[in-house]
Design a protein that fits this description.
single chain; alpha/beta; 19 helices; binds ligand C2E; binds calcium ion
């Protein structure tokens, strides 16, 4: 799930905005060039054709000038001056050799003959009354004449002085106010060749219709406006895309309670940090931090208050981190993940202690009083952390970028390390090591094989006899599971029962054992053997099922074993679960004729209270009573009182883990009913147990 989410997020991240921006810029440049190029061409074309109209006139003036240089035609000069009062004549070296009027011909000129290649003229600006502007646009058209802005303006109404301009006046300056039929004279100088190689330059007027200019301006404005609209629309699209992406990113990467990273944010940002080349030689620690009993806190206060605590804790964590190279995230209700740089365990511990200190101190300020009016009732949380190192990536003495990084695996390891602290609620920090890795692998393997093992009957029932301490008579047995695995060999229950208890498979194991024990007992009874009750362990998880008593009865009945041959062992710790449900199950089991025992009495928390409420048949004293360094007198005092207590409650007693004769003697004196321990017998396969049944009395040999 997380994986597919991550994939789709990466897809969104890859929605290349920069590509849209580059495309936009590219399209803009191309279309601006095309539109404005076309406009330039249009201008050029129209000016060019106007100029060309003047060509004949210039040519005829040049010919009059040439003719007027003959003596007989000297009077033609007057005609010429009358026709064109301003002209200049240049020799081949462009020296001024003749002329008339004011020479306001500029130096800048250009050919406009691209329409009529055969025509030999050059056009110059008129510097007094410039109406054309020379522009070079590179290879495209080296000499380009454009209408001056002033000319355009002159085609409109008279421009008022901006200071005096009243708001309504602007209207008059619009293109609408132009008299479109008006013809405007635009003075330019035109140069043409004379037959002797000299150049004749004459001031002439190009006539432009106001309507042409208006059309030109409107077309240019419209085209550029369209371009502008397209650009704005495109830009809006890009900006909206960026905003949408930011929002999606937030949805994917930001935790809504802490406003910091969520798991996905941690994955992506953590990967970025760890993959950076400059971080390749750094050792990192991935910390799984859990607030102990956070749920209880939320239940006592409110979910809202719990969220506030999470927000504050997250802020405090972030305050202790290096801004660019360290990271934290809120992963689930009570847990955070933190990535820090740390050389060794001491450094991690130091930073953890510092964080703990700030979290503890902050607790005082951030918790609301439990009850109004009791401002001193503050809550202080405990924190537990699991740590997994991410080693520097140094190959052949050189640091190499971490190419792949499985953050999820590192995190799992940190979680596994933390789980070893779960036996208490105290503050603590645990490091993931190879032993834990082995354990993890083992758990994986057991889980992979469990169902197949059950189906193939790889689980075997061993029996450990229980003897009376006085006559050494076989009076009971406990069924204990063994796993004869083709893959792992002979596996003792301590290696797999805790795994099954955690993953729930234990209920199938309990069924399996009850069925097999019932079947063995039935077979032995049918064979005419003198059977004794066999106790079967039923796990704590199983006792939560409301119809457990009926399930057991049905299983035993399906084989046909009389109920008095089956005893159910319930471990001491189970009595801390739903008491009423357990009492109910015990009563029903007893009503069906099964006896029920309390296993491991004295091993954990005192269950004296449970004894008061539960009508049990057998009390099994835990082997711990006989172990440890405590003073033997004290040990004996406790055991003897426990036995007395059981007797007063009409319970029989079984002493577990009895290994030597003195213990047996002592227990006999105290009135203990049964001994289960290596002194008499270790757990054994069914056929060996059959022999013990036949033997009935078993007196161990003296050393
Ligand atoms: P338990 O129910 O307390 O079983 C007694 C354990 O003490 C057995 O270990 C037994 O071999 C051991 N034991 C008995 N006498 C002595 C002794 O004199 N000295 C020493 N050192 N040990 C002794 P085992 O068979 O390894 O079982 C361990 C635990 O695994 C059991 O503790 C029980 O909690 C669990 N278990 C075993 N079989 C089953 C089963 O079929 N179902 C369930 N739910 N749990 C089982
Ligand atoms: Ca047991
Ligand atoms: Ca036990």
């Amino acid at each position: 799930m997380a994986n597919s989410k991550e994939k789709s997020f990466r897809k969104i991240k890859r929605s290349y905005t920069w590509l849209s921006v580059v495309t936009l810029v590219f399209v803009l440049i191309i279309s601006a060039a095309l539109i404005n190029g076309a406009l330039v061409f249009f201008t050029l074309y129209s000016v060019n054709s106007k100029v060309d109209n003047q060509y004949e006139y210039v040519k005829s003036m040049a010919s009059i000038y040439e003719k007027s240089s003959d003596r007989e035609n000297a009077s033609l000069r007057d005609v010429l001056i009358n026709e064109c009062p301003n002209f200049v004549v240049l020799d081949k070296n462009r020296n001024d050799i003749d002329g008339h009027g004011i020479n306001s011909c500029s130096d800048v000129g250009g050919h406009l003959g691209f329409l009529y290649a055969d025509r030999d003229y050059v056009v110059y600006e008129d510097t007094d009354d410039t109406i054309l502007e020379f522009k070079s646009i590179g290879w495209f058209q080296p000499d380009l004449w454009l209408l001056r802005d002033e000319v355009m303006d002159s085609l409109g109404a008279d421009k008022p002085d901006p200071d005096e301009m009243d708001p309504g006046f602007e209207e008059d300056n619009s293109l609408d106010s132009i008299d479109k039929s008006e013809i405007v004279d635009m003075p330019v100088w035109m140069e043409t060749g004379l037959s002797n190689g000299n150049r004749f330059i004459v001031k002439t007027n190009i006539q432009i219709r106001a309507l042409d200019v208006v059309v030109f301006v409107i077309v240019a404005a419209c085209l550029n406006m369209i371009l502008l609209i397209i650009t704005i629309a495109w830009l809006i699209r890009i900006i909206r895309g960026i905003i949408r992406r930011k929002k999606t990113e937030e949805l994917f990467l930001v935790d809504e309670v802490t406003r910091s990273n969520n798991w996905m944010g941690f994955l992506l940002n953590g990967e970025r940090i760890l993959k950076k080349g400059k971080n390749a030689d750094k050792r990192y620690a991935m910390i799984h931090l859990v607030i102990v009993k956070y749920r209880n806190y939320c239940m006592c206060h409110s979910l809202e208050e719990g969220r506030r605590i999470l927000f504050n804790i997250s802020s405090l964590i972030n305050r202790t981190l290096k801004p660019k190279s360290e990271l934290s995230a809120h992963v689930s209700s009570s847990s955070f993940v933190i990535l820090i740089e740390a050389e060794n365990g001491d450094e991690v511990k130091f930073r953890f202690d510092r964080l703990l200190e700030s979290l503890k101190n902050a607790d005082m300020q951030m918790n609301t009083p439990r009850q109004p009016g009791h401002s001193d009732t503050f809550h202080t949380f405990n924190f537990q952390a699991g740590v997994q190192y991410i080693e520097p990536n140094i190959i052949d003495g050189k640091k190499k970028k971490r190419k792949t990084i499985d953050i999820e695996q590192y995190y799992n390891n940190a979680v596994t390390a933390k789980s070893t602290l779960e036996v208490t609620d105290d503050d603590g920090i645990a490091f993931f090591d190879s032993k834990l890795m082995e354990d993890e692998r083992w758990v994986d393997m057991v889980e992979e094989h469990q169902q197949k093992a059950l189906d193939n009957e790889e689980f075997i029932v061993y029996y450990q006899p229980k003897y009376s301490p006085d006559k050494a008579e076989l009076i009971g047995a406990e069924a204990l599971i063994r796993w004869q695995s083709p893959d792992f060999g002979f596996v003792p229950p301590g290696r797999f029962i805790p795994v099954f208890e955690k993953n729930g498979f234990i209920t199938s194991i309990d069924h399996y054992m009850i069925c097999h024990v019932a079947a063995d007992q039935k077979r032995w009874l049918d064979a005419g053997m003198e059977c004794v009750p066999v106790s079967v362990n039923v796990s704590r998880a199983h006792f939560a099922e409301p119809d457990l008593a009926e399930q057991i009865r049905n299983m035993v009945d399906s084989v046909g074993t009389p109920h008095e041959y089956i005893e159910i062992e319930l471990t001491e710790s189970a009595f801390f679960d739903d008491k009423n449900a357990i009492i109910d199950t015990i009563e029903r089991l007893k009503s069906y004729g099964f006896s029920v025992s309390m296993d491991d009495f004295g091993s954990g928390y005192s269950s004296l209270n449970s004894l008061k409420d539960m009508n049990l048949d057998v009390l099994k004293l835990d082997a711990e009573f006989f172990r440890g360094n405590a003073d033997p007198d004290r040990k004996e005092a406790v055991v003897s009182e426990a036995i007395k207590l059981a007797k007063r409650l009409n319970m029989r007693t079984v002493a577990e883990g009895v290994e030597d004769k003195d213990e047996v003697e002592f227990l006999k004196k105290q009135g203990c009913d049964m001994i289960q321990g290596y002194y008499f017998a270790k757990p054994m396969p069914g056929d060996e147990y059959e022999e013990r049944m036949k033997e009935k009395y078993h007196m161990p040999e003296e050393d």
